[in-house]
Each structure stands twice: as structure tokens, then as C-alpha cells.
Amino acid sequence: METPLIVYNLGDRGRKHRGKERNFNLRKLAAAINSDETQERVKNRDMPGFYGHLFRARFGLNPPETVIVGGNVVRLDPAFVTTHLRALPDGTIEHKAEFLNTDAGQLAQKAYASKFGGFSSAIDQIKPEFCGFDYVFEPNFNNNRGYSVALDSVSVAERDAVFDSIIVAEYKDQMTGCLRLLDSVSKAHELALQSVDHLRQENEELMSMLAVGRDEAALDSVPILPLSVSRAPAQRIISDIASFRNARLPRFVEPKGDESGQMERAYDRLLNRFGIGG
């Protein structure tokens, strides 16, 4: 969704009792907005806007795509891009914005459709450089709604006073989250120790049952856990020896003699051949 052309003048905030008066150098600011560099950014859709000013306040007027916060990578999703931007010498600013299909973009688009909030400029007065617009609840220039609290000329002291409270609140939230995380890790560690102790007891019981049921010998040494060694192979060897000793081995049966004596002579030859004879 793209907004219609939004027009407002830097000399008319449209407010009397809230916000802050701005004293821009209109000539320099108009030159910065109409410069080839700024217009190229607008043409290439390289001028993102965010939902609120917090990202720019914490990470610079031109924040990166991602930042590291508390050791975690955090995406700085934009809410819209500026698709048209022009400045006139009298301080009139024209611009259009296209809302993006991001979470922040959907929030900004819903607020815009509900006629709540408006656009607020982010300007570096020192260069000067026009960095873009953000969508805020209460824009300093009331006519810049499309139907700035502007970072452009907020002093360092004002910026610290405003955003320190936000940072402190975030710090408290982070500390609360860290304490909850540590408590959760401590409980998990305690449960793990209990599980290890329970498994150790079960293992000892199973080892004892195996030692009794399988006739095993335990080798107990201080540096290591009790080690069980089966005696079954040795018992099998002893049993085989005993069986062999008691086994009935094949033997020659002395034949009954006959009148010729041939059987006796053949029997004697077999005994002599195998070394059995006397």
C-alpha cells in the first residue's frame, strides 16, 4: 500500500502546546533532500522507515539490517520505504511511502488506515543529511500524517533524557529475563543430578543381580567402578576335561580264536602296527 502525496511545511508544525519548534537551515536541507545521492536512494528504494524512532536512536540514523543485542542477532525490520521525496525552497516537503509486508509494516499500515499517528523525519543537521521517515504516534509536524518527534534537531542532552528511560526499561526487562533463565537452568541442573543418581542406583542393582544370576566374579578396584568377569569359559573347560576322562573311548576287541590261528595273528599285527602290542 502506498500513501498519497503527503505535503507539509517546516515552518508550520500545526501545533501550539506540544512538541518542539524547529529552526532548520531550509536552503541546506532542501539541497540535501534534492541531491543526487538522496534521490538515488529514493529511486532505488534504499530509504527504509521504521516503526518508531528507537532503532535509529540506539543504532544510528542509518541502522544496519541486523545488530547484536545480548549476544543474539536481532533483525531491524523496516515498516515502509520512501518512494517519493522532494523539497521546495520555502520549506515545503513532499513525500510518499509504501508500507512493507513485515510485522512492523503491517502495524504501521493499520495505524495509518485508522488515522492514528504519522510520519516523523530523521535528519542529521551537522552534515546535513536527510535519513528518512519513521512512523510515530505523535509526529512533531502535525501535518505530516498523510491523511517529526523528529530526530533531526533533537539535541544530545534531549536525546539522552528521552531515550535513557527507554534503555533503562529495556535493561530491567533483560535482567528479569536473565534471572528467569538462570532459575530455569538451575532447576534443570538439579533434575539432571537426581536422574543421574537414580540411574546409578539402578545400575548397581542390575550389576548385583547379574553377579548372582550368572555366577560372576567381581573385580573391585578403587580407581574404577566394580567390574564383573564371567567364569563360564573356565567352567566349560573343566567340564570338558572331566567328560573326556569319563568318556568310553573306542578300543580293539580281541577276536575269538579259530583252529587255524589266522584271526589271532591278524589281531597281533594290528596291535603291533599301532604300537599297542606288548
TrEMBL record:
<protein>
    <submittedName>
        <fullName>Uncharacterized protein</fullName>
    </submittedName>
</protein>
